[in-house]
Amino acid sequence: MINTLYLPELREMLERRDDPALREFCTALHPARTAEFMEGLSAAEAWSVIGHADAALREEIFGYFGHDRQSEIIETQELEGVAQLVADLAPDDRVDVLDDVHPDRVHQLLELLPADERHDILRLRLYPDGSAGAVMTTEIAKLSESLTVTDALTELGRQAEHFETIYYLYVVDATDHLRGVVSTRQLVSAMGRPETRLGELMETDVVAVNPMDDQEDVARQVAKYDLLAIPVVDRERVMVGIITHDDVIDVVREEATEDAHRSAAVAPLDTSYLKTHVLTLGWKRGIWLTILFAAAILTAGALEFYSDQLAKWEWLVWFIPLVISCGGNSGSQSATLVVTALATGDIALSDWGRVLWREILQGLLLGLFLAVIGYVAVSLIQPASSEVFPSNALVVPVTVLLVVVSGTVLGALLPLLFQRLGLDPALMSNPFVAGIIDILGIVVYMSVAQWLMS
Questions:
Q1: For domain 142-244, which CATH number applies: 3.50.30.30, 3.40.30.10, 3.40.50.300, 3.10.580.10?
Q2: Vertex 390, ends 382 and 440: CA angle to 5°?
Q3: pTM recorded for the entire structure
């Protein structure tokens, strides 16, 4: 019955206050599916439905709502119930939700929360967006190094329901300094030696990050060492939280989306495409389109500067699109490869020399190949022209070679320059690279023409 349930039937349950059926609805499916079935309900209706689940299940279902729906529920529904829900959420999740809620409502909620939760929320909200501290959770499985395996299992059983994850058990001293880590597999495997202390089992070479580290660097660390969670420590190695694999997935998705937007010369969206206001979307696209339009005007200026030569050698105009497109395309390819390599950690700024050499070689190889095609194209398009005799026909292939080499080099070095300046390399997007190469292509084209045809 639940699998074929439609919104009218769910609303009918609410209208007739069919509590048993609503409880069944909340418990019969995975929380994600339950949340999916409620997408068409209003915030008040969704809140009424999940009110029939116990606290733990209600928190799970709420976690699968979209951020906009979560914020609407918190802002509009009765304060006491919402405060209890917020208190039950994982520390990192409730901070994310409250970031989108009106400050006055947040203040009212904080007054109703227990002191520990209130202090935790205020502390986590101090970390800047994009930092490790902003995505970490403070619910950590911390155990003393002096505990035996038996004691550790007992303590873990007592605390497990309060932790977001127990894949790793972090071993700390009396002042919460990180000493090592023991996996739950290691702990279970050591049950045959119940008196063994955690200090003897733990691995002391623990990969950790600082709360102010960039979240993208954290994601790279997790991927590099194939971790399910990574500890966050301060300068004195005191444990302040952990970042779990699900949060890392969110970070990777967020960073990939931002890079994809920037690579197309669009300012990253704060919300989903459909939920972004048309005027906001227009602004985020228009500001960069204006800059690109200005670059195109410069290209037109370059053509106007060489108008006399173009009037003298009219046939050169036919091949302008070919010349600038091969340079822009090769530059965009190089920029994409370098930006991706920087994002994944495959290259660093110190590798700029190797990158430059490889792109020069690529430019020569690709440029020579395209130059041959260009020479053939010139010969076929105007074989009988008195202007396009063999030496003049070399203008196009020579230009293609130079422009492709220039495109690959600039496309590779500009993202590295942006990284060196502390900017996002993805800002040097494909349209920007293409715009720069367009202007350079015109200058090179006309310079080669004057050299070979004068």
A1: 3.10.580.10
A2: 80
A3: 0.67
